[in-house]
Protein: Aspartate aminotransferase family protein
Organism: Pseudoalteromonas rubra
Amino acid sequence: MQSLSLPTFAQMLGALELECQSFNLSLDTRRVSNPGSILKRRELSDEPAGFEVFRQIFSTEIAPQLSASNGGRYWGFVTGGANPVATYADWLVTLYNQNVSKGGDSVASDVERQAIEWLVSLFELPAGFEGVMTTGATAANVLGAMAARQYAGSRQGIDVAKAGYKDLDCTVFSATPHASMVKALGLAGLGQDTWVKVACQSDTEAMDTQELALKLRQCTSPGKVVIASAATVTGTDFDDLVTVAQLCREHQAWLHVDGAFGIFERLLTGAAGRTQGIELADSITLDCHKWLNVPYDCGVFLTRHPQTLCATCNVDAPYLANDEQARPFMSLGIENSRRFRALPVWATLLAYGKQGIKAQIQRNTAQASALANWIAASSEYELLKPCNLNVVLFSASASNKHDTQSLLAKLNEAGQVFMTPGVWQGRAAIRCAFSNWRTEQADVELAISELARLAK
């Protein structure tokens, strides 16, 4: 059997430099998405192929078929690009390969704690919030559901983490939960289909707080949980978090707020803006790989009750013991082994500062407004909802020769921009979300040109 010839660091750095240059130079011209991509079938070889074979196959067969989601015209979901400082920091994460489960052997845990403190400061939240960095908003929402479940159990004399939830009586209320939140409720054993639907305010996805008050009064469960939204995924609507928080306190309900990207609105209008009241939540989800523009994967779970989170996640084992006084991150999250994903966040906050991050959000919201204004003035398209933040929601008008779904398919097939489908008030919609630091006004103008071309 052949021995594997390992590349030197010089060879790897040289190859990485060429790959980075090639990719960055291609971002303005390569297809934004590759819906027809095909991976050549290969059998696993008995003999080592080596680094150069991998490099050649990746560069010629895989890289050309990857999306340009890191570029300025990928507007599906809410996908931020990896900013240069965060990209460099992420390379360092891989190089140093720290396991941030328990502290005591390196400074990595302290970096994560400081990054969380900085995020709390960035969003003007009370200093009592603590938390953990997760693989994304879905994992953060799972922690939210699990911590809420633990709280509901404590009100009934049940330690759910240790005894299970077979005797738990808990009711969950929400108006427009994100799909990841529904998934989280299922993973936490609370049920994807058992949460109680609260009506929305007219023509919005925001919660009707009067109906919430009525449902909470009528609820006989000793454990109550309310899932609120700081920017719903389609309409970017914000629940009235001040009123929701007051109702939760009155009925002793746990309040979890999904603010994956909506919490960044706080940088535009401050603590008295549309996120007012989020500081009263028991727990919050946010996503750094969205508007903070750090690489995948990086979500954050914050809570005012770290002791409840620790009771949910902690497990002892002799080989895990050390003398660290702070709560270890493995006792605050799902994973025991954890990547040093805090470093790109820490580096971004340090390098760009609050004003730099705010300026990027302002650029994206201005770009969204520019596209929305063009659509509103067009006879071929219909703006389904005023653009209040970074999401443009529109459809083909009656005079357009394409229906909305086929229009989106043709738009993405052309490869100049990428958008995703949505549904608004029962109508098929196209959803375009701006959150990438690379996006320029020229990209918006290119999208307008594409839309105009398709309409003709």
User: Anything to note?
Assistant: Residues 87-349 form a domain with the Aspartate Aminotransferase; domain 2 fold (CATH 3.40.640.10). The chain has 14 helices and eleven strands. The chain has two domains: 87-349, 356-455. Residues 422 and 429 are 5 Å apart (CA to CA).
